[in-house]
Amino acid sequence: MIKLKDMLLEGRVEDARQYIANSIGTEMLSDGSEEILGYFIDGDPSGNHKYLMWMVKMHDIDSGFSPNMLIDLVQRFHNNLDKIHPALVTDMGFYSASKVATSPKNIDSYPDYRTLKRIVEAAEESVTRKQREKEAKTGVDKLYEDDRWLLVRPLTYEGSCYYGSSTKWCTASKDAPQHFKNYSKTGNLFYIIDKSKDVGDFFKIALHKKWDGQEEWYDRADDELTSQTREAIRSILPSKLTQMIDLEHSEIPTPPTEMFTTTEFREELIEFVRGLGKIIKLKTRSGVWDLHIVNGLFRWTGNDPRVEVIANLFPEAGVGMDLEIDLYDEGEGRGDDDILDLEIEYGVNELSTETLYPADYLQREPPEDYVYSSVERNLKLFIMNIYVPKVRLVLDSDEMVDFVGVDYKTWNAESYVSSFTFKYPPREGTMTQKFTDYLKENPRRTSNQFYEDVLGRSRPRAHNNMFFSSIKDSGIVKMERQGRQFVYSLGPNYSAWTKGRLLRTNKKYGEL
Predict the structure, then answer these.
(1) CA–CA separation, 222 vs 21, rounded Å?
(2) N or C: which end of the chain has fewer CB within 10 A?
(3) pLDDT for 82-138, tens place per residue?
(4) For the chain, which ranges sit under pLDDT 50?
(5) Which residues are registered as beta bridge partners of 32?
(6) Phi first, then psi: what are they for 195, rounded to 5°?
(7) Cis status, amide bond into 255, omega within 30 of 0
(8) How far apart are CA 463 and CA 345, in angstroms?
């Protein structure tokens, strides 16, 4: 006798098999489709295939998510079911009456991979309020306390946020941990708290005592106190509290980590780039450029053999941190007036981002619990987020395009998992070839019309979404609303594509 459980399992597998068959427009599965289904069956952690159909549907809707990615996410979802509840979902901004909020433990409530991933990551990181308070309280030095006053020195970002609550201090901002780290590197940070709140809006004061002796006092609104207000506050503080501040600040600590000199950091960068085992390429409006390091110089060469861009790092050791970009034309037939003047120098403030500072990437031995926790990671972040963007500004500039005499079009996909590059000419019989040829003769057509007119069948819901999204992102085609439908025509980059001058870049997600 067949047990009810076995019937349920077989029914779910058959439903998934039928869904795939309908999706590809055939009654039977190909060997490849059967193999993918097998992956999902084996990888379903539920024990009764209740996640199977969701994985099959997500893979069909967006084939950029591999079976392994989907299985891994579903396993994490299954392992964290006890932490996934309506309150967690609504706290993340989901409408309380949505399917995700009302049935968060039901995987079929999640419309796509990204939504489930957000919830799973939140569940993995969630801890109770009591646990957060406990961790935050251990992240400070409690230096003084009586019935009214409390003096703490925050040692961790979490401790800073806890004792800096109800203020606008950047060092206690919940989404900017870097500010706390930067203040801590340049001096001691103290929080003075009046538990009675008898001083009105000054019941929380942040005091930053810098290593050079300067003091900065801030009220709850993060406004710096005038000298008169500061002295008034100091006059009512217990003498033991102010003595403790002076005592704790009496010795300047040794820096927690030794820093690379600019010369050493340049050598580390050279070894890192050489160790990649590949040439760093930049696809820009002026063409494809390759990075070569010759005699310690960072040299970029492109399609024109006469032109070389030198984008050198820290050329003069010990004299600040500069990045110089010079353009050389080694060809003949151009006079001095034709040489493009692109000498640019960047100072220390311009070799930073909102989250990456020299004090971060120059660390010789980053602490393990630090966000920039390894030299190799910091070298990569510097190249991707500081060096390459500076070089790209020049290579993408109108002046460079005019100088080399060629103008490429560049694009990047909205989805980071998209693997489409759209080389020209497309292979015969591919979706790219069929779709663009169809639109040349039939502009302003829908994807459904393309399926019916060219492929001879109706388009399954969301089938080949990644292709249509990516070819639209590339500008080879454009998409416009027509009533309740979206129609496609040849796009602004179609001509550049047919001339081999359309390049996909990785500006949004880095170059390495």
Answers:
(1) 62
(2) N
(3) 888 888 888 787 877 888 888 999 999 999 888 998 898 888 776 555 566 777 778
(4) 1-4, 255-256, 318-320, 333-337, 509
(5) none
(6) -65, -25
(7) no
(8) 50
**pLDDT, position 235:** 92
Q: Does the residue 179 lie in any domain?
A: yes
Distance CA 377, CA 512 (A): 12
Give the H/E segment covering residue 308.
Answer: strand 307-313
**What pLDDT does 336 receive?**
46
- The answer to whether residue 257 sits within a structural domain is no
350-369 pLDDT, tens per residue? 788 877 888 888 888 877 65
**Contacts of residue 151, Cβ cutoff 8 Å, sequence gap at least 6:** 142, 143, 144, 145, 190, 191, 192, 193, 241, 244, 245
219 and 156 both lie in a single domain = yes
Here the tokens at position 178 are: 């870097």
Are 289 and 281 a contacting pair, CB within 8 Å? yes
Total length of the chain: 512
Q: What is the pLDDT of residues 29-44, one digit of tens each?
A: 555 567 778 778 888 8
DSSP 451: I
512 part of a folded domain: no
Contact 298, 412 (CB under 8 A): no
Q: Which string of b and e fits 19-54 if b means at least 16 CB within 10 Å?
A: bbeebeeeeebeeebeebbebbbebbeeeebbbbbb
- Taking the alpha carbons of 470, 474, 477, 478 in that order, is the dihedral positive or negative? positive
List Cβ<8 Å contacts ≥24 apart for 100-106: 105/81
The answer to whether the CB of 220 falls within 8 A of the CB of 204 is yes
Separation between Cα atoms, residue 160 and residue 233, nearest integer Å: 21
- Give the count of domains, the chain: 4
Rounded CA gap, 408 and 504, in Å? 10
Measure the CA–CA gap between 144 and 166, rounded to whole angstroms. 21
- Strand order across the 187-194 sheet: 140-145, 149-154, 187-194, 204-210, 215-218
pLDDT of residue 335: 47
pTM equals: 0.49
Pairing between β-strand 307-313 and β-strand 297-301 as defined by DSSP bridges: antiparallel
Residue 509 pLDDT = 47
| CB neighbours of residue 459 within 10 Å | 17
* Pairing outcome for strands 409-411 and 502-504: parallel
